[in-house]
Amino acid sequence: ELGCDVVIHSATKYIGGHGDVIAGLAVGKKEFMNSVAMNEQKDIGGVLSPFDAWLLLRGLKTLHVRLDRHSSNAEVIAERLSQHPLVQHVYYPGMDEHPQKEIREKQMKTGGGVLAFEIVGSKRDAQFFMDQLKLIKIAVSLGDAETLIQHPASMTHAVVPEEERRQMGIEDTLIRLSVGLESVEDIWDDISQALEKCQ
Question: Is the pLDDT of residue 88 over 90?
């Protein structure tokens, strides 16, 4: 429908959904997928263990329910962050003012469970904010049942030169949040109390 020949997924994230399996998957036309299975899996051996496959099947049973909750929680958090005086930018495709809203509406039913925001201040302020969190865990993954937060400039993109990071839109004050399944009020209370300590 969207013109893709192959869809590649990190099943570790939302499909597994519990942060307890490492897996990937590819979906495509039968002929192509058969050649991948014959060449790659047979020769290289990249095959899931039965237990990991079971974990993914378990995750699939609740995927739609979890995605609804991730998305509805993220929408609330994005909206509240956009109103906070210590937050200067919020990046969330579910917001009406997102520059790629039309693309999102064609490809997605919701805004998803991941957002990013920039706080007022410096790299040190962003890190201080994260250190004040009590419920939200610092981790570079996403799609987990728990809310996870990371600071790209000092974590995933720490080795990328600063100028190159900025060209990619990764400012020192950018924070990425993978919103989990907890009560949205608990998530917001944690973010709010951490921001309050930054004033």
Answer: yes
Query: Can you tell me the distance from the alpha carbon of 137 to that of 149, in angstroms, rounded to the nearest whole number?
Result: 6
pTM: predicted TM-score of the whole model, two decimal places: 0.89
If one counts every other C-beta atom within 10 angstroms of the C-beta of residue 131, the result is: 10
Q: What is the pLDDT of residues 16-31, one digit of tens each?
A: 999 999 999 888 888 8
State the pLDDT confidence band at 108, using cuts at 50, 70 and 90.
confident
Q: Using the CB atoms, write b or e for 142-152: b if 16+ within 10 Å.
A: bbbbbbbbbbb
Count of other CB atoms within 10 angstroms of residue 39: 10
- Cα distance between residue 56 and residue 54, in whole Å: 5
The Cα 34–Cα 80 span in angstroms is 47
Evaluate whether 194 touches 129 at the Cβ level (below 8 Å).
yes
Strands (E), the chain: 6-9, 25-28, 87-91, 114-119, 137-138, 148-150, 174-178
Q: Tell me the mean pLDDT in the region 154-176.
A: 95
Helix 184-197 to helix 50-83 angle (10° resolution) is 60
| Residue 25 bridge partners (DSSP) | 9
Question: Considering Cα of 36, then 38, then 42, then 44, what sign does the dihedral take?
Answer: negative
Residue 96 has pLDDT above 90, yes or no: no
What pLDDT was estimated at residue 94? Answer: 85
Q: Single out the residue of 157, 161, 66 nearest to residue 112, CA to CA.
A: 66
